[in-house]
Amino acid sequence: MRKAFIPPNPPNPVNYSDSLKNPLEYFEKYISNDFFASVSTLTNMREVSVTGHSLETSATEIKKLFGCTMLIGIYALPRLRMFWAQNTRVPIVSDNITRNRFFKLRSRLKVVDDNMISAEEKSHDRFWKVRPLLDSIQRGCRMNERSPMVSIDEQMIPFAGQVLMKQFVRDFYLYEGKGSSVESALLATPEKLDVGGRMVLKLTDTLPLGVFVFTDRYFTSIPLIDFLFSRKVFLAGTIMANRIPKNAGISSDNDLKKKKRGSYDQLVRDDGKISLVKWFDNKPVNLASSCMGVEPEGSCRRWSKSERKYIDIKQPAIVKNYNAFMGGVDLLDRVIGKYSMRNRTNKWTIRTIFHFIDFSVAAGWLEYRENAKAAGLPRKEIMDFLDFKLSIAKSLILENQGEDDMEFEAEDDEQPGSKRRSVQPIPDKRCRRQGNIHLMEFMKDKQKSRSKCRLPNCNKLTFAKCKACGIYLCCSVERNCFATFHQ
């Protein structure tokens, strides 16, 4: 039956304004210092159980391991061992962790004590080996403000080895493979829901009432829309043709194809709670929703081959909103895929740990970018993802280092015979405030001319340089930028 469809009023938008933090603080929202301390203890225990000797690793060294692994993903040499080879070594990696130590720590990484997990827990949770890490990141995710418009989509962890868990779905919730049960913690899950619908119910447990959820055809079904509607959660998404009731009476694909591009048909259920919309663009698209329909009708531009120009065609509101709000997980996928920690390993646990470290960095950057825009920061001053990840990697490597451990930071800016010195990036606040590693050295005997002080708003010239930060800072009776910079 066709009738007018009146969607519910959307909730008020979320205010993302927040004071900007440094990159490491965004990262630590998902993975805290306690996690690194726990990993170092458990890794030592693992080595003792295997060999009888402790690796004597520490939280600081585990941070170095992850920081160097991030840099390995960024530099992306063809072979992992090339980072330590004589002709291709990368000092910031090779000077901070030896090759053998890197591989040893990586192979022994543990995030859970096997002896503390019961046989029942192991049989019910296929991800028990990495569960503490997943719980830590999930807590960080749930600290984020929830937008009134959310999307649910699948995400895959690239892994070439043998593993039972073959799919990954993000709030996030990890799909454990065929035969696993996915149940909502709030209400009994209807038996007629497939695994996609059950996952959506599971993920919406943490959402407030009145939110609009967008899903793709893998998840959307009429029973799912009905059940979410009873919980005052509204869903819109593309739907497979075989999930539309056969007696619905909506226009066929051929009927819409005979009409001009942009034609559509809408069917509203008798109780007025669900709208089905079929829209013809290049091909028919089926959508179902409990929160939106055709109105208000809009338009979009498409290229017409016959007319050889762009033309405006009609576009239902549900299509416009779906295109606008469905894609958050895809964006996260794209960010994670850049400079990811994908060095080869045959252990799914190590691959999963690295993936979620990348996940934390990507999620932190997306939050930072939203905060920077809300704070009115000019676009050119917003840190891009590469610099953001480099900053986190450098902070993990530098943390709590002594003077003897920082040689790669104290390299001279000037090369013999060069006329122009390279510019050293300014370190973040956490690094610059570690007072025990910041020592001043004067470069007068190594260069002919002075360099500009890097403290903002200072234009003085100086021979003084911070050995740890690698940048020039003036220090005199009249002006002590070195002290000001590190306070």
UniProtKB/TrEMBL annotation:
Residues 407-427 are annotated as: Disordered. InterPro entries: PGBD (IPR029526). Pfam families: DDE_Tnp_1_7. It comes from the Eukaryota. Residues 22-170 form the PiggyBac transposable element-derived protein domain. Signal peptide: none annotated. This is PiggyBac transposable element-derived protein domain-containing protein. The lineage of its organism: Eukaryota, Metazoa, Ecdysozoa, Arthropoda, Hexapoda.
